Amino acid sequence: MVTKKEMPACPVATTVSLIGSKWKLLILRNLLARPWRFNELKKDLHGISQKVLTDSLRSMETDGIITRTVYPEVPPKVVYSLSELGESMRPIIKAMETWGISYKQQLHEQKSV
User: Could you tell me the CATH number of the domain that includes residue 21?
Assistant: First the structure.
C-alpha cells in the first residue's frame, strides 16, 4: 500500500493514481457485480493482455482495493473480490455509469435532429 507521503496532494489525483487506468476501472466494474476468477476476467475484458491483467490485479491488491483468495485445490482456485475499500468506490463507478448513459443519450438525440 502506498504511504500517505507518496500520495499526491490533490484528492482527485490520488483517486486517479489508484484506479485511473482503463483496465483498472473495468476490473473494478466487474468486481462490483461479483467475485471473479482470473480467466473469467481475461475473457470478459476484451483486448487486455495477461501481463496487464496480472499487473493491474497485483497493484489493486497492494493498494487494498481488492482481495485475492486462494483455495487449496488442485489446481489452485484463485478468486478476486472487492475489499471494503474497493466497495467504497461503488458510488464513483455508479456516477461514471450514469454520466455515460446520459452522454450516449445526448449523442443519440443530436443525431436524430
Answer: 1.10.10.10
